[in-house]
Write a structure and sequence with these properties.
Length: about 300
């Protein structure tokens, strides 16, 4: 990291002039965010790191200027991301992966009005902030696996018309399937993975009340292949493949987003920070010079 920061001042400054360059810079700024969130050294111990922390404070305004219209990318946060860091993320991210992080709160949900896909698996966010997540206006894909949630939490999602819901390794029972039928969620779901929960074979008939359901996965439940075979023999619109049911004649594929990660952007990270940092630095130098000249002029008078 030290060499990375040292190389900042050796790169030329390039000002974005078109929408493609703005999109490019947006991706690089996300790399900057990831790097800054991984820094846990107190600011007073290293002036260079302190300056980078200051750059993070300007990040919100920069993103709002450089990211119109939204761009479909997925941002994956590092494990030790603190709760307050969410307010620095760009509004235009379509897919956010905060699984296996130490985050406990989903702060400022209005910043994520563009969010289409959210992965909060293996966190405590689902139990703490499920109402905030349910309020996201464009959310279509949600992963809440390994969150220790119960049926009562799932019912709070009943009015969210998700296409895809993954809720494996939780404490769910047949009640979840019953409570979600004939709701906006139950009527919209196309992909439903409820593996490794306390789901019994008696609940299979419930999925007939899910009109759009294409794939239903039940690995690690009390439903066995014999139950699936019996169900398929009675309902010709379904077939079973391993431990999942599939509706014949329909297909569902998860929307893929370009991933923003360190490997993709490391060689360009310095350039992005240089654009941001040098512009801010020059402005601060100008302000300081103006302030100094004002003091000298006042002293002479």
């Amino acid at each position: 990291m030290q060499r990375l920061y040292d190389s900042l001042w050796k790169l030329p400054i390039q000002t974005p002039s078109d929408i493609e360059t703005h999109q490019y810079l947006f991706e690089l700024l996300n790399i900057l965010t990831l790097k800054l969130l991984e820094i846990h050294i107190p600011p007073h111990r290293n002036s260079r790191l302190s300056k980078c922390r200051c750059a993070l404070c300007r990040y919100q305004q920069l993103c709002e200027v450089l990211t119109q219209p939204p761009f479909p990318h997925e941002l994956t946060l590092p494990r030790r991301t603190p709760n307050f860091a969410l307010k620095y993320l760009p509004k235009c991210v379509y897919s956010l992966n905060i699984s296996h992080t130490l985050l406990t709160q989903f702060l400022i949900p209005k910043r994520f009005d563009c969010l289409v896909a959210l992965n909060i698996s293996a966190t405590s966010i689902a139990t703490n902030c499920i109402d905030d997540i349910a309020a996201l206006p464009h959310l279509k894909s949600l992963n809440i696996s390994e969150c220790r949630i119960k049926d009562s939490i799932m019912t709070q999602l009943k009015d969210v018309p998700l296409d895809s819901l993954i809720c494996t390794n939780n404490n769910l029972t047949n009640n979840t399937l019953t409570q979600l039928q004939n709701t906006p969620l139950g009527n919209a779901l196309k992909y439903f993975d409820i593996s490794n929960n306390q789901i019994k074979s008696s609940s299979l008939n419930t999925i007939l009340k899910y009109p759009e359901l294409v794939i239903f996965i039940v690995k690690g439940t009390q439903i066995d292949q014999r139950s699936l075979k019996t169900f398929v023999s009675r309902h010709e619109q379904f077939k079973y493949n391993g431990m999942q049911l599939e509706r014949i004649g329909r297909k569902f594929s998860q929307k893929q987003f370009d991933s923003i990660n360190e490997q993709w952007g490391l060689k360009h990270f310095c350039e992005a920070l240089c654009v941001v940092g040098c512009t801010s630095f020059n402005q601060e130098q100008t302000n300081a010079k103006t302030s100094t000249e004002s003091i000298i002029f006042t002293s002479q008078q």
